[in-house]
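Lecture 7 notes: from sequence to structure.
We start with the chain below.
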Amino acid sequence: MNQDILFVDLQTWDSARQAVNFPAQQGGALINCWVSRVWLENKCGQTLVDESAVLNAFALCRFDLEDIAENLIEDEDFNQDGDIEIT
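Predicted structure tokens for the same chain:
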């Protein structure tokens, strides 16, 4: 695990994006990380019908998602807005 990348224990559902935001910090910079509802549904093998179900699925996958996001940050695989997206 890279000690330069820290994940705060915060996640929010964005219904317009149909994704969960979970921020990371690297060298003092805030990086918005996103995981899509579709990715979570595929990982969990079920349809996530509301915010509560999505956030519960996120909690179950959190460590995997942080590992994936960490690798994407290290590879500088940012989108046009400077965010990390797991879709």
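Points to note: Residues 5-86 form a domain with the Double Stranded RNA Binding Domain fold (CATH 3.30.160.140). The chain has a mean pLDDT of 95.
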